[in-house]
Here is the input.
Amino acid sequence: MSDEAELRRFWPVILACFCIAVFAWGFGFYGHAVYLAELRARFGWPASVITAATTGMYLGGALTMPWIHAAMTRLGPRTVLGGGIILLGIGAMGFATATAPWQLFVAAVPMALGWASTTGTAIATTMSFWFDRRRPLALSLALNGASAAGFTIAPLLVTLSQAFGLGSAVPWTVVASWCVLAPILLVCVGALPVRPVLSATDAATLDPRPAFASKPAALRDRHFWSVALPFALALSAQVGFIVHMVSFLLPALGPGGTSAAVSLASAAAMAGRIGAGFVIDRLHQRGFSAVSFLVQAAGLGLMALRPMDPAALFAGSVLFGASVGNVITLPAIVIQREFAGRSFGLLVGLNGAIGQFTLAIGPALFGLMRDFSGDYGAVLLLCMGLQATAAVLVLRPWGR
Here is the structure.
């Protein structure tokens, strides 16, 4: 099957994964910035307490991600993705309607399972069942739903929360989203396409790149860690800042300006990911990853230097956002290029879990830093340091 025919035949799967990504990142990623700002304003809870629940959610997702490939192979992508949107929605409603801090930690449990079943690892695994040669472009298009969430779900939640309260805004939006997603999932994600089954010897002969038969074997490989570690550091900075982004921007920009800044960042993320998707096969992927990390650091630096200047905040949001999508998409693309295809699902799941464990520290750590220092200056400097370190580490594969 030609590259173009592969895309034309399987475009409904891309559409379904795009819509699921909008939902997943809207409520499980960007939504946490809204939950943090609204719960602090309503109850006065410390940022460190609220973000500790977010950290728990990401840690739970990290424990689940290595098993997503096996679950999809056994149950099918439709079942895993469908169960994921239900669990994630239940968790989001739990965060929004909490009246005591302990309830946030209860809500984090279903949200963690739903997050693992609907985001990067799940979508990359789904793409691997339907796409081969055009998988990088298909993955980029599907994961643009994550960027779309930033200028659809996130500002909608901010606006509705201001008008009706967080406890009404989130449940209404979740239920409406379920009504849209259910038919799309049923129609667009069907039976897995039939692919030839090769013996281990034939597979190794046809694809001699590094492959792993088990998770422990992959975790002992330095080459794999040269992908997993730098992206984990970059994601820690990225997610940690996004969780606090609304709280950081509100004093200078107000609700309307904050919604606009988040929307601009998300639009930049979508534009960056679409542009990269068409050319990433022809680029030095590790070099492009390093540049992406440094562009984010530049955006954070601009905001750190001018924290009350609306122009600087908008420009910094765009710079930061331009690489948000690529930092999420690139690990799977690098793994596809540097490792054998038969290990793709295993390695993407492990990489996702490592990234989740590392980024889970970000929201709570940054919350503590914010509470201790009284502003976000130190938080932004730490994020810049993580991005710069990631840029250095990703440039060269280890152990080759």
